[in-house]
Amino acid sequence: MALRAGAIRFNTDSSQMEIYDGNQWTGILSTSSELQTGGTRGVFWNTISPNPSAERKQIDTIQINSTGNSTDFGDSTMETGIRGACGSRTRGICGGGYNSHPTADTIDFITYSSTGNATDFGNLLGQYYSNGAASSETRGLWLGGTTNATSVSGGQDVIQYVTIASTGNAIDFGNMISAISTCATFNSPTRAFAAGGYQVPANSRTNTIQYVTTSTLGNSADFGDLSSVCGFNQSMQGCNAVRAVMALGNVAAAPATQTVNTVEFFTMATLGNSVDFGDVTTASEFLTAASSPTRCVWHINASGGGDGDKLEYVQIMTTGNGIDFGDCTERMRTAGCSNGHGGL
Known about the structure:
Elements: E1 8-11, E2 16-20, E3 25-27, H1 33-37, E4 41-45, E5 58-63, E6 71-75, E7 84-87, E8 91-95, E9 104-111, E10 119-128, E11 132-135, E12 139-143, E13 156-163, E14 171-181, E15 184-187, E16 191-195, E17 198-200, E18 204-213, E19 221-231, E20 238-239, E21 243-247, E22 250-251, E23 258-259, E24 262-267, E25 275-279, E26 287-291, E27 295-300, E28 308-315, E29 323-331, E30 335-338
Antiparallel strand pairs: 1-2, 2-3, 4-5, 4-30, 5-6, 7-8, 8-9, 9-10, 11-12, 12-13, 13-14, 14-17, 15-16, 16-18, 17-18, 18-19, 19-22, 20-21, 21-24, 22-23, 24-25, 26-27, 27-28, 28-29
C-alpha cells in the first residue's frame, strides 16, 4: 500500500516521531506555536492605504486557533505595502514594498513571542514589490515581483532567499519559469510554491503553479494549473503541511477581468491541478492569509478593491465556505505570515 502524505511513524534509530510529506520522512519538531505564543499567531503587515499615514507601518496580529478582532502588534520599519512576508516558528520576516511609486529593498523582522516594532534584517537583491514569499523553518524565499515603480507588468523571474535565524542580505536562489508578479505563495516542509500572477512579457495573468525544493538552489518546475488565470493575489495564501488553499481573486486575461470569491486547493506532495474548495463571502482582488495546521484566515479587502476589515477562515483539511473570524484594522494589500504555517 502506497504511503500517503500525513502518515506518522516512530523512527527507532533516531528515537524521533516522523511525518511523511509525500516525498520523504521528516522529523516532527518538539517545539510548537503553542509553546512560543500560546497558540498560532497570525500577522498582517503594512498597507498602501494613504490615510492615516501611520497605518502604512502598522502590524496587526490574531490568534488563529480562536476568533476575534485583530490587535496591534507594533510597526514595521517603513511606511509601505504590497510586500512579501513569511517566517519560522520564532521570526516573521517581510521584504520589499511600494507606496506612492517608490519601491523598496528593505527586509525587516519581528519575534512572534513578543509584541513590538520590527527590526532591520537586511536587503533584497533589488527594489521589489508584489513579491511572493514562502519559507521553511530555516529559509525564507521571495519569488518574482516587480521593480517597475508604476506597473505590476514589469515582473521578474528571480528567486532569492535568506537564512531566517540570522540577519543579512538576500542571496540568489534561481529563476522562475517565467517573470511574474502578484503571485500567491505556499509552502510545505520541503517545497515552496507560486501560483498565478501577472506574467511578462505577455502582460497577462497566468494559471501556472510552480515549485522549488526549499533546501536546495535551482530553478522552479511546473506543478500544475489553477482553474483560471488569475493575478493580484497577495502572498501568503493558506497552507498546512499537506494542502495549499487560495482565494483566486482577480481572474481572466486583461482587460476582460472579473473578481471572484472562488477558493481552490491542491495537495503539495503530488503534482496536479487545483480543485474547488468553496467560496469566501466577498469577491475581492486583494486577499492575504495567515495559517495554522488546521485553519487559513484571510484578510479580505473591499469588493471594489478598497480598504477592508473582514477576517474570514476555513478549515484546511475540509472543504466549504469561509466563516466569519472577526475584523482587522481597515487596510488594503497587507502581507500575511504566521508561526504555524505548512512549511514548519
